[in-house]
Amino acid sequence: MIKEIQFFYDFSSPYTYIAHKKIKKIINNKDITFLYKPMLLGGLHKLAGITANAFIGHKNEFMIQDCVMISKKLGINFHFNEKFPINSLYLMRGTLVLKDSLLEKYIDNFFDSYWQLNLDLSDKNIFEKKLKEIGVDVDKFFQDIEKKETKEKLKILTDEAFSKKIFGAPTFFYNNKIYWGQDRLDYVIDEAIK
Predict the structure, then answer these.
(1) Of 17, 26, 53, 181, whose CB has the highest number of CB atoms within 10 Å?
(2) Which residues does residue 171 pair with via DSSP β-bridges, in sequence order?
């Protein structure tokens, strides 16, 4: 029986990018599958009363150095984005209006654009160019992410994460337990396949 691990993510988190890359390396494991669960990290932090690392001087400096060190060790192409942090609202809504292989391309493309290519995804022209590169109908995309049901769905998913006591990204959720951080991936896999 295939075990499903929920992966709560937001593009704005560099550690989540690292976790995504690690997942991509083990995706062919026949015993487990990952269900990507988008949430708005800023909204989650607000619900939890947390100040993000990006706004705490020394923590932010450490995070940059830490992500570079981890990525180098894992052989992951990484560049800490000079525009960090950006508002990921439209990026995360986008995950709710695309399906199947197009959604998979979108996730890969925008993680790489932000954390590998150092692109300013808050620039609408750059954002649209990246959408076109993977074959997204840009006009329809922007209409869909502004729909009330799309906005509400992202809020519901963020509330769901908070109700599970999730407080940051990346978080893996399996068997009613949270595993917070890219360095907890091996632990959740062990739990799932034991």
Answers:
(1) 17
(2) 8, 180
Residue 11: which of 143, 112, 145 has the closest Cα?
Answer: 112
The residue extents of the domains of the chain are: 3-193
pTM for this model (two decimals): 0.93
Do 124 and 138 contact (CB within 8 A), yes or no? no
- The letter for the amino acid at 99 is K
Tokens of 39: 């949430």
Structure token pair of residue 103: 């959604």
CATH fit for domain 3-193, picks 3.40.250.10, 3.30.420.40, 3.40.50.460, 3.40.30.10: 3.40.30.10
In this structure, what token pair is assigned to residue 7?
């992966």
pLDDT at 96: 98
Each residue's pLDDT tens digit, 114-156: 999 999 999 999 999 999 999 999 999 999 999 999 999 999 9
In terms of phi and psi (left: phi > 0; alpha: psi -120 to 50; beta: otherwise), the region of 75 is left
User: Starting at the edge strand that comes first in sequence, how are the strands of the sheet with 177-180 ordered?
Assistant: 32-38, 3-9, 171-174, 177-180
Q: Do 190 and 28 touch, CB atoms closer than 8 A?
A: no
Q: Provide Rg for the chain, Cα atoms.
A: 16
User: Which amino acid does the sequence have at 53?
Assistant: N
Q: Residue 109, CB half-sphere, CA atoms under 13 Å: how many? A: 21
126 burial type by CB count under 10 A (0-12 exposed, 13-18 middle, 19+ buried): middle
